[in-house]
């Protein structure tokens, strides 16, 4: 259903053309923090965001899994759910979905053609041209608010929160999974500064759920919530979880919260951190039940959580040889991966292939990973901000020297050749892990699954 008059000739003839135009802006314009362009865009498009119920999710790690849990449970409860996530794993349209289905090419093409004159108009103002991420965010809002009309939209921030283009919405509930060392080149050089950026999504009177801990800038979130008169539900205070059973592909936990206890909650995702992400999702759903009369029966809650899948995070993509994908790319993510490798998986030798962006805290990442690996293959993601493989190898050698540890380090800049090396070295009882930026995980996943290259983009 299109509410615009077609006064302009179509700028694009196919969805592929429209996507190429959007994605091409990433290299030209980069990331442009700030909300003024988004505000002008929404105004000119008739404020479609005001029609929707958003669950706004920020955080350093665990955002994607938490969004996946929320989407899965709400769908199990019979609601139509829109999701907006980034970066995507295989193709651009993955980032905008309703009930797990990508935005159809025909809708994408029509909406981008509708938006293009408005985007060109804004580009002529002193605010400058909207970025790739701003246009993607506006496209998602247009699709959800003018075409698909889902009951809820699970809305993941791209970068930070306060100045992120997703912060244009007024959500029904807000989530900050945690605060860690990520994007510090943009968000600030201390945990407190990063926390302040994440806390920028907290809105007046809108409940906020967090698993952030005191050393993660929790006090910044608490102060912001207090100032905004937003009720804060914090892990360890208002809600908690206790691990009951843990085996490969099935964990259960007991949830305790301010409204009721929920025993024996099952999840299929692996790693101790997934219990925490699931507990955050359960607390969010409990708030939706209490505040907004969202109907969540226990049967549907259990079913939705147990059926949640999240590709690229501790995902066993191949069994012969065993290849595990994990998008850990910062110190906290590496700690989580290391914990899972020590508790969930068994292996004789551990061979790890990694590729990073140049902007990350590689020292912190390597400190967690190097004590566990037998072979380290360092490659480069096919992305314009890729980290230099030789520099990473040099850093790894220095750290290993300090640890007094011998590890076979191989530098192979071509990720496909690096993947061949990894799999050829991995025998039956060994485990191969591909880790690092999701741009690398995306490529490797597409290549192993479909033997095709993935699309690229934020």
UniProtKB/TrEMBL annotation:
Membrane-spanning ranges: none
Catalytic activity, as annotated: (6S)-5,6,7,8-tetrahydrofolyl-(gamma-L-Glu)(n) + L-glutamate + ATP = (6S)-5,6,7,8-tetrahydrofolyl-(gamma-L-Glu)(n+1) + ADP + phosphate + H(+)
InterPro entries: Folylpolyglutamate_synth, Folylpolyglutamate_synth_CS, Mur-like_cat_sf, Mur_ligase_C, Mur_ligase_C_dom_sf, Mur_ligase_cen
NCBIfam families for the chain: folC (TIGR01499)
Native source species: Paenibacillus violae
Domain Mur ligase central span(s) in chain numbering: 57-284
Protein's recorded name: tetrahydrofolate synthase
Keyword line: ATP-binding, Ligase, Magnesium, Metal-binding, Nucleotide-binding
Residue ranges of domain Mur ligase C-terminal in the record: 312-437
Organism placement in taxonomy: Bacteria, Bacillati, Bacillota, Bacilli, Bacillales
Nucleotide-binding is among the record's keywords: yes
